[in-house]
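note to self — DONT lose this again. spent like an hour looking for the file last time. sequence + predicted structure for the chain T wanted, 211 res
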Amino acid sequence: MSEENAYVGAYPFLAGRRAVWREIIRYAKTDAGQVETLVELGPGYCDFVNQFPAKRKIAFDLNPEMKQFAGPDVDWTQADAKRVGELPTGSVDLVFASNFLEHLEGDEIDELLEAIHRALRPGGRLMLIQPNHKRCAEHYFDDPTHVTVFDDENIGPWLERAGFEVRRLVPGLLPFSMKNRAPKWPLLVRAYLNSPIRPLAAQMYVVAERV
């Protein structure tokens, strides 16, 4: 299956997504610090993990169809995200997840955060991009697999209970969906991300440090 024709379930491959993610990575690298080992949870088409500069890249995804999109330098594993906790303790510098936690029940989130905390080195970062319910309440449950509500008020305390300290929280960084009229050209995406005014921005950006 070519990328151009890929359509895995209700999650189609979008030709412009990779360039958009390249700009998101450019934006996020300053918050990531020095990254030797990167883990992405639920990488989908692997646009983040494939392009982020790290010596070792690890991805966990339950959908076997997504393996074909992982780059040759990505250690892709078909497994539950909680398996991140089986990596050597303190061996990971950055864990990244986009549009992921809202698909889990509360106890599953607690277990996952515990596993992430175990895998990260002290000072390692957890980086999240999440729908912000306060900014997209009318569409939050358009996806029936969304089960837990997150917004820019409750996500910080949730992470702190799990042993993280929130270093940065942007309530609205990205549009709710890349399928809307948001900018797709790289320079426009870069300008959008760095602008104090972001129309349609309904996804928050959270950087938390393992303490």
